[in-house]
Amino acid sequence: MIAIGSDHAGFGLKQVIMEHLKERGEEYKDYGTYTEESTDYPIYGKKVGEAVASGECDRGIIICGTGIGISLAANKVKGIRAALCGDCFSAEATRLHNDANVLSLGARVIGEDLAKKIVDTFLDTPFSGEEKHLRRIKMLET
Ligand code: RB5
Description:
The chain is α/β, with parallel strands linked by helices and 142 residues long. It has 6 helices and 5 strands; from the N terminus they run E-H-E-H-E-H-E-H-E-H-H. D-ribose binds at residues 7, 9, 41, 64-66, 68-69.
């Protein structure tokens, strides 16, 4: 199960990504926001982060205007490694090296087709499991 959330700035791209997830046959749960009315990104970063950290969902996708604010919020949740990605190389590397469990996207920064490719890369790339990467991830824990 994928947890997905956005603020108002990410609302439009979130609809595109949810459609894409449906086409991929992925199950997802939308944690809001549900309209384009102005709202506060920390609410949705936290909700998605908590859904993933609790085990209710396996991965998360969060979207705001830049992807920055909402990733800062998600990364405050213990156990969350949220990565802001604007390219496929970063999306692959953050899965291989950081075992990132939440992907953050900037709706005002990247186009829809690139966003979909980044989502595919993020979801299809496994963690490498390498000892050095495990050690570094452990060092991130608070
Ligand atoms: C909303 O205007 C915007 O500030 C927000 O979506 C995000 O970009 C914050 O980091």
